[in-house]
Each structure stands twice: as C-alpha cells, then as structure tokens.
Design goal:
A hairpin with a 2-residue loop joins strand 7 (about 110-130) and strand 8 (about 130-155). The chain is built from no helices and nine strands. Helix content is about 0%, strand content about 70%.
Length: about 190
C-alpha cells in the first residue's frame, strides 16, 4: 500500500544554560532555576512525504488464531524549529563586586531536512466467537530526526560579553515510541 504521510509534532524541552568562561562564585554558572532560570525551548516539526507499507498474515486453527506483521516507511521533507522566546539572564559585573548585570537572551534554530519515519507492528488475533476477537500486538514507531536538542547553550559570563549575546548549538534527535496493546474487537 502507498500514500502520503503528514507529520506535525509540537512540544517543549526544559533546557539548562551555562555561563561562558569562568565561574563567578560557588554554584553560579550553571542554571539552577534560582538565579538563571531554565529555558523552556518550544519545539515544532512538520513534514510531508510518500509512505509505503506491507503486511503479512498467517491463520491457524480454521482462522481462530491469526499472527500478523506490518511495516511502514515514510520519507519526509520536514521543517524543524526550536525557539526559547525572550528570557532574562544575570551575569556578574566585574567592575562592581557582588553585582549582577541583567541581559536579554534568545536562542532559536530552524532546520529543513529529509528524514525517515518507520513503523513495525507484530501481533496476534484470537477469535473468541463470531465477530469478537482478542488482539495483542507490539508496535515500534521511529520518528527519526524529529526533535532539535541544544548540545550547548551559552550565556555571557560578564558585562563585557553581553554584546555577544546568547548562543546555542543544536543537533536533531529521534523520537521513538514502543507500545504493547491488548484489546477486544467486535464486528457486527
């Protein structure tokens, strides 16, 4: 079977930050949620592309037991976006002891790329009575290269670095879901 798949995924990732350069005082540098807050990075991915699938079934005991497997693969052209929105950070001001300088920051990234979505499902259907089935199956779906994750997020460590702004490096990661389903099916 063939068709078209459209993927739309939105979410948020809680991201720590760290200061560029030396630590100001003990405990200062990495975000602890007190002085420099964690960043809530909004994620959005959408993509469209062709999908193909195949399946196989084996029936036993006059079709009272059916074992089946299905595979699907989709090749998507997708757009990934990660954006922190505006946030405030605090960096030490070396000209004034024990003082902190607030700064405005924002990290974002947009990537257009191709990726695969794959699915494998295997299971069994047991016919309990006419039109009534017990179904057990295992499914594993891989949404490959669907999420942008920052591998490093740096904010200025002192007043002289605030003009450099905030920076981040990103890498795309997979989102893989495995499920086991147990259910009853009734057809009339």
């Amino acid at each position: 079977m063939a068709g078209i798949r459209h993927l739309k995924a939105d979410g948020a990732i809680l991201t720590p930050t760290w200061l560029t350069g030396a630590v100001f005082k003990a405990g200062f540098g990495y975000s602890d949620g007190v002085l420099n807050n964690f960043i809530l990075l909004q994620q959005s991915t959408s993509g469209t592309g062709p999908v193909g699938s195949g399946d196989i079934e084996f029936s036993f005991f006059k079709q009272r037991l059916t074992l089946y497997a299905e595979v699907k693969a989709a090749f998507l052209v997708q757009s990934l976006t990660a954006d922190s929105g505006s946030f405030t950070y605090y960096a030490p001001d070396p000209s004034l002891p024990n003082s902190l300088l607030p700064g405005a920051g924002r990290i974002n990234r947009k990537v257009d790329k191709t990726a695969w979505n794959t699915t494998f499902e295997a299971g069994a259907r047991v016919k309990l009575m006419q039109g009534f089935h017990l179904i057990v199956d295992w499914n594993r779906t891989g949404y490959l290269d669907t999420i942008l994750i920052p591998t490093s997020v740096a904010i200025p460590a002192n007043a002289s670095q605030t003009q450099s702004g905030t920076t981040a490096r990103f890498v795309s990661r997979d989102f893989i879901v495995s499920t086991i389903n147990l259910g009853l099916s009734f057809q009339f």
